Amino acid sequence: MIGDRVETDIAFGNRQGATTLLVFSGATSEKYLNTLKQQAEKHAIERDLLPNFCVK
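^ that's the sequence the OP posted. Answer follows.
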């Protein structure tokens, strides 16, 4: 699943068992993704929001 929004595209792909690719050309910034990754390590946020791969 390829998408630019972690809350919709990436979450949907992960929940369906698909490999996910986040593109930074749209809604989600690299800074926001890094924030999510840090929160995932410290807190039990939904890991469904984290993509398998990213491209700029």
